[in-house]
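## tool: complex_structure
## caller: assistant
## args:
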Amino acid sequence: MSNDHDDGHDHHHEHEHGSELSEMQLRVRALETILTEKGYVDPTALDSIIETYETKVGPHIGAQVVARAWVDADFKAALLADASKAIAQLGLQQKVGDHLIAVENTPTTHNMIVCTLCSCYPWDLLGLPPAWYKSAPYRARTVKEPRKVLADFGVTLPDAAKVRVWDSTAETRFIVLPMRPAATEGWSEEQLASLVTRDSMIGTGFPKAASEVAA
Amino acid sequence: MNGVHDMGGMDGFGKVAPDPHEVPFHADWQARSFALNRVMGSAGEWNIDVGRYWIETLPPAVYLSSSYYKKWFLRLERLCLDRGLVSKAELASGHSSGPGRPLRRKPLSGPRAGAAVSRPNHDQPPRAPAVFAVGQKVRTRNIHPRSHTRLPRFARGHVGTIERIQGCHTYPDAMVEKGIERGEWLYTVVFDGRELWGPDAEDGATVSIEAFEPYLEAA
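## result:
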């Protein structure tokens, strides 16, 4: 049960065990064929779903939400009160799921999101979770040693910040509202959104610094 | 069930390995497996809780050594067999030997299916007022059901504080064990790290879980 054999690291798998790949290709193809022949599955629906998650849904949606919260205090208040409702009113194209909760980072509180039991993640705002989010080390360690997990991302918190870990054990879904970077006064929402990283919305990273993007 | 899926607090898995060159799917079969699960999951033959249970009941060694989308595939294959949607002979031959049976709901179909994928709402009508109030101390029950539960082991038998009341949601335990769609109040319960991990906790850390009312008793 090394890392390579856990969630998502199949690019390693392919090199090490070519036979598993072909076995899985065959088995998935067989099941798809049977389910299609029986009329349960429409292959064009499969193509559409894959295309949606490969090209349309992703962290750029969450980044727009964060940028809006940074410039609009009323929206931020609404987001923290009921994130599903506030985001739906933004009119982004993507359908927003229910029971979505935004949690705010402050100089004294740093939030981190995990799902110890499976892989719960706010797909509608961030797309599919990265492999590390679904991996055994992240799921096992975040609730016990969050600062050590952050160190694996090269992230060090100020001593004043206390870590709050949210384990997604039900159908509520969490997104972190990171702190707005310094020296971004007067920036447009679009410029601000370019600072918002996926990891900053999970709590395993910070937004980029103003100096890292061309203003 | 006290399965290997319930990983919170386990040691020995090594470092977290972020991948800067990440892609959604590492092979075509992973993408197909993902989409097949989404389509068949929309047919009303099982819900999200039942789907999770059929991953949790994979043998532990299989669970730990299979990639994420392989687990999704194995879950789907097992559920399709269990629900009589496919037969072992069909899986062996790779072809259907007869027409399908009616599904409870029409699954996602068509070239716009991707836009229709969304998280379902889990609200249920309350059967009684919420027992616990924000700010109240509660103790999580020391329970070890053999069936599905969303109370992780690391958080059993510990005292925490009700921080939020999230509404009344479908209770996963009853859904999987009894096939009953029943509402229970859902709370965010926050624990001090020391309560969970004793002297091995990191300074100042707190951890919350989303806990259904049957998981809790007054402290």
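## assistant note: Chain A touches chain B through 90 residues (CB under 8 Å). The CA atoms of residues 81 and 203 of chain A lie 19 Å apart. Handing back to user.
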